[in-house]
Amino acid sequence: MRSARSCATWGAGPGSPFSCPASAWASLIHHLRYGFPAPTQAILFLALKLAATALTFAGGGIGGLWLPSLAMGAAVGAAFDGWLGLGQTGHLTLVGAAALAGATHGTLLVPVVFLAETTGQATLVVPALIGTTVSYLVARESRI
Fold this sequence. Notes:
The protein has helices at about 5-10, 20-35, 40-60, 65-85, 90-105, 110-120, 125-140. It is mostly helical.
């Protein structure tokens, strides 16, 4: 059985990484949600995701901004989560995802409601609303 790390690596095994056993994917998701990600890994993921999204749009690819903004926001949140080392691992990751999505799309409540519905954690609503409000105001002030 392959490990979660080898399943997440590009080009691992024959075909798509979706051929990984369910337990390996569950292990990877559990590590990302409850493990302590290194800030450098999060920043590296942010840079790679930003480059991949930019290349997709530059090449005429069709794609949205919702999931890339969530992924990049989660990477920023995971970096802060790793640097600060607060007791609630993964909360800043989720708040970062909501905050960047709110700033990107110019909305406050949609990412917060999305976060609350997908995680089922009502305790994240207030921190996500604060983070989304701050990022929305900063993005609004910096637009030309």
